[in-house]
C-alpha cells in the first residue's frame, strides 16, 4: 500500500474555504453521484437510518432523503462551513440531520446504520484500515455501504505538467483500487464489488482547471507538499508543459473514479488484523455458548 500521508487539518481547511464556491464547480461530482445512487438498488429493505459521509453541501444527502423519505438521514462532514451550506438542501418536508465529524470516528452506535453512502470523500482519508473498520462497526449485518473515490490516475496530465517544471509534489495522490479492495476485505466487509470509470473534462486553459480545483477544495493536502509560494518561473513552466497536451484545442483533465459497494457482515465474521483473523462476539452470546 502507498506510504503517503494526508494532512487532515489541511483537508478540513481546504473544504471549509470552498463551502461557498463548491456548487459552482461540482458537475463531475453530480455525475458520479447519479451512478452511485444506482448501486443503492441492490438494497431491497426499507432502511431506518441512512448516513452520508463527506456530505459537503448536501446535494447528495437531499437525494438520499428523497429516496428514503421515512428514514433518518444524517449528513456527516469534516468541515463545518460545508454543513452550514447544506442547510439549503434540507427542507421542512424532507429534512436531514447535519453532524460535523470525521469518517474514522463516527458518533454512532455499533451496527446502527442500514445504508452508508459516500460520494468522492474517501480519497481524502489515508488510513484505510481505520476507515473501513469504522464503516464495518456502524453497519448493521446486511447493511449496504456504497461509495466512490478518486483513483491514482486522477489529474495525471496536471501531475505530468508539474513534473516537467520541478521535482516536487503539487498534486494529491490517491490510492489504487486494489489497495481499497484489500482494505475492505481485511476489515471484514462482505462481498465487495469495485469498478473503475474514467472521465475526461476539458478546459480552455490550464488556469481554469486550477480555479475549479480551488473552488472545490480539492487542492494538495499531502503532508510532503511544498510549503510556501510556488515561484513564477516554475508556474510558467508548468503551464507551458500543459499547453503541449491540448487535444482539439482544449486542455484535458482525467478523473479516475473507483465506485464500490459491500455489505455489513454477520455478527462474529472474522476480519484480518496483523496477519491474524479475529472474530468478535457479544458477551451474552459467549455466556450462552457456555450454558
From TrEMBL:
Its EC number is 2.1.1.197. Belongs to the methyltransferase superfamily. Residues 51-147 form the Methyltransferase type domain. Transmembrane segments: none annotated. It is an enzyme of class 2 (transferase). One of its GO terms (biological process) is biotin biosynthetic process. The keyword Methyltransferase applies. Keywords: Biotin biosynthesis, Methyltransferase, S-adenosyl-L-methionine, Transferase. It comes from Rhodanobacter lindaniclasticus. It comes from the Bacteria. Gene3D superfamilies: Vaccinia Virus protein VP39. It catalyses: malonyl-[ACP] + S-adenosyl-L-methionine = malonyl-[ACP] methyl ester + S-adenosyl-L-homocysteine. Converts the free carboxyl group of a malonyl-thioester to its methyl ester by transfer of a methyl group from S-adenosyl-L-methionine (SAM). It allows to synthesize pimeloyl-ACP via the fatty acid synthetic pathway. This is Malonyl-[acyl-carrier protein] O-methyltransferase. GO terms for molecular function: carboxyl-O-methyltransferase activity; malonyl-CoA methyltransferase activity; S-adenosylmethionine-dependent methyltransferase activity. Pathway: Cofactor biosynthesis; biotin biosynthesis.
Amino acid at each position: 500500500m502507498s506510504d503517503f500521508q494526508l494532512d487532515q487539518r489541511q483537508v478540513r481547511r481546504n473544504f471549509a474555504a470552498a463551502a461557498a464556491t463548491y456548487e459552482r464547480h461540482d458537475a463531475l461530482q453530480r455525475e458520479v453521484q447519479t451512478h452511485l445512487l444506482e448501486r443503492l438498488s441492490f438494497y431491497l429493505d426499507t432502511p431506518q437510518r441512512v448516513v452520508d459521509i463527506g456530505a459537503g453541501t448536501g446535494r447528495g444527502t437531499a437525494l438520499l432523503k428523497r429516496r428514503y423519505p421515512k428514514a433518518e438521514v444524517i449528513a456527516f462532514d469534516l468541515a463545518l462551513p460545508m454543513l452550514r451550506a447544506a442547510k439549503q438542501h434540507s427542507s421542512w418536508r424532507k429534512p436531514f440531520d447535519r453532524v460535523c465529524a470525521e469518517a474514522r470516528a463516527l458518533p454512532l452506535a455499533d451496527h446502527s446504520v442500514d445504508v452508508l453512502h459516500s460520494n468522492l470523500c474517501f480519497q481524502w482519508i489515508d488510513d484505510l484500515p481505520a476507515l473501513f473498520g469504522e464503516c464495518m462497526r456502524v453497519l448493521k449485518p446486511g447493511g449496504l455501504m456504497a461509495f466512490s473515490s478518486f483513483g491514482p490516475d486522477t489529474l495525471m496530465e496536471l501531475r505530468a505538467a508539474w513534473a516537467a517544471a520541478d521535482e516536487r509534489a503539487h498534486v494529491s495522490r490517491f490510492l489504487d483500487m486494489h489497495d481499497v479492495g484489500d482494505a475492505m476485505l481485511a476489515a471484514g466487509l462482505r462481498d465487495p464489488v469495485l469498478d473503475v470509470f474514467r472521465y475526461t473534462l476539458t478546459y480552455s486553459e490550464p488556469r481554469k482547471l486550477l480555479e475549479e480545483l480551488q473552488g472545490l477544495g480539492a487542492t494538495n493536502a499531502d503532508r510532503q507538499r511544498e510549503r510556501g509560494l510556488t515561484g513564477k518561473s516554475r508556474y510558467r513552466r508548468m503551464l507551458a508543459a500543459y499547453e503541449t497536451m491540448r487535444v482539439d484545442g482544449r486542455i484535458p483533465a482525467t478523473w479516475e473514479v473507483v465506485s464500490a459497494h459491500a455489505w455489513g457482515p454477520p455478527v462474529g465474521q472474522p476480519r484480518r488484523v496483523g496477519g491474524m483473523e479475529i472474530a468478535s462476539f457479544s458477551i451474552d452470546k459467549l455466556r450462552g455458548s457456555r450454558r
